[in-house]
Structure formats: structure tokens, C-alpha cells
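In this supplementary section we document a worked example of the pipeline. Step one takes a protein sequence of length 388 as its only input; no multiple sequence alignment statistics are reported here. Step two produces a three-dimensional model, which step three serialises into C-alpha cells for compact storage. The input and output of this example are shown verbatim.
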Amino acid sequence: MSQLETALTYLEQCRDEMQRLWETVVRLETPSSDPAAVDKLASHLDTYCGALGMETELYRPEGAGACLFAKTQERELSPILLLGHMDTVHPAGSFPGGAWTVRDDAVYGPGVHDCKGGLVMALYVIRALLYAGYDRRQLRLVLESDEETAHTLSSRKGVEFLQRHADGCGAAFTFESGLPDGGVVTRRKGGGILKLTVQGIASHAGTAPEKGASAVLEAARKIVAIHGLSDPAHVTYNCGIIHGGTSANVVPDHCEVSVAIRFHTNAECASALEKLSTLCALAETPGTRCTLGPLVGFPAMEELPRTAALFDIYRHASESLGLGVPGTVFSAGCSDSAYTTAMGIPTLCAVGVLGEGQHSPEEHASLASLLTQAKRLTAAILALPGDF
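The serialised model returned by step three reads:
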């Protein structure tokens, strides 16, 4: 048999144990805010990778759970990166019906779709390739611990961990939630949150209002101006949280506004930040001043010159296996794929299990898609030409 036939046959034989591992990692609930829970899953997967003969590294950044890196032996061609995250948005014990519920072909649970099914896929794609004797490229696995918080818990140490281990890779595949129709994400919006702080002058609102300078009034003016900058075709702005003032009879001397922005390209992000800085430099309310904090979030995932070629390989692999012809999708959601494309690594995102409802109590995924998605990716990696 060819390497492809050997690998696909192996995956077929592993169908049941793949699903059992999927259940195990979902039942190990891992909210981003519970580092010990993430550590437990990372340790479990570290042991699993070690049993495959992979060299591993556990990295525990302060404030977040452990990140995991594993790799096969070095090879002549550039490595392939398999990327995912272990944390979820769901508090432990909060999922309706328990952590693992199966209804026909759909399985419900915290992170079952985003993206624990993808973690299992990644492990079995590696297993199948090793079983088939694949030796053209090193396979690298990076699993993050606080992706759902935009790496704020780790103070972005998780991003540095990813960038260090992605360096030199020829292509990357991210196991984010797969779309119901099997489409692949090749571009994503970037987005983040900034804190706008307005400082004013406190004074009695009844006896000496003229001595005060209202931070809330200035914040209100800034909010109107910021929303006026929105252009859905490029950048959108949303002032979602406001804190200010101490009492109704005190001219407020402090106000904070959380400003969220979404952008299609990183050039748009730079332009948006410049516009916000210019706006904040001009105080309309005498006696007030504004400061803008740093943007916390994700850059945009941009298409690279070789992204289309990488997708063509993936699409052809799927079609040749009789698994359909996936399309490409532009997503408004953010992911760590933005960091790999920023490094110049062509990346396909959302190659994980197929499903819907991520970040909600209805999060679910197709049981059957665990095997079919693993087959698609295995075939695509085997088909990669030497110039990737």
C-alpha cells in the first residue's frame, strides 16, 4: 500500500479510540481562568505525545495554564505546524446535560467543537503519518493555554511560545472549529479592546459646578465621535463598557470606556489606532484630558502569496478522497492563525471537527467529522510539494 492508503487505513482502525480520547479531553474541563485544570490536560497530552516518540516541552507562563509543544524528528524539508488551544470559555460544571452528551451524530460539551475535537485530530494525524513511515518533514504541535482570553492571562507569553516554535515552518494548520460545510478559513478579522481614560476635575455639582470639569461629559462626546468613525467595510468601533462618576451631585473627575475595534487588515488597524489617538488628543470639555491604553487582542489573519496554493492542495486532497470540495471563508472571529501568517507562514484555519454553537450552551460537533477531517488533513500533508 502507498503511504496515503496505509495512513487512511490506520485512521479507520482507530475510529473508536479517537472518539474515546475526544470524550476524555472534553470531560477534562479547562476554563482559561483555571490554570490547574489546563495543566492537567496539558500533562495528559504531554504523556500521549511522549508515547509517540515525540520530544516535548511544557511551558507554564505565570497567570495561565501550561502550553505544550511536541515535535517529531528533524527532516530535510521545512516543518509543518499543527496549532490548537486547550482552554475553553465555559466555567467548569456549567454545561447543560454534563460535559459529554451524544445525540445521534452530534456530541455536546464544553470545547467539544472549540477546539478539543481538533486536538484529537492533530494527535491522530501525527500518529497515522508516523505509522505510514512519513519522513519528509518534521511535524510540530503547539497547544496554547489562554487563547480564549487573547493571551491576556499569560501577558502574551503564550504568543511568544507559539512564535518561537513556529519559526521556520513551511505551512501551518489550525484546529479551530470547523464550519458545518467543511469550508476552510483563509482570512480572519483582527480585533481587540483599548481602554479610554478621561480625567477631569471634581467639584460640587450644586454649589460650584463651574469649578469642575466633567470626565463623563467628555467621555460621552468621545463615544459619539468614536462610533462615527465606524465603516463596516473596513473598521468598526464599539464602546461597550463605561465606568465613571461617584455621585449624582459630584462633577465626575474620572471615566473609563472600553473600546472594541474590528479590522480586516493590519494596515487598517494601524490607521484606526492613529485616528483614535488623534481624537483623544483633542479635549472638547475644558479641564479634561484623555489617554488611550494599548490594544489587547489579535492581529488580522491575512492571506499570503502561498495561501491559495496551500488551500488548493487541501481542496484536491478532499476531492480525491470523495469527501467533497471545500471552499474558502473569511471569518470575523479571531484566532492564533494571525500570528503564523504574520510570520509569513501560509496557514489554513478551522480545519478541526465540524459543528456549530461554539461559545454557547449549544456547542456541538459531528462525531463522524472527526475521522473525515483527519483524513482530509493527512492526505493534504502527504501531498505537500517540496517547495512548501
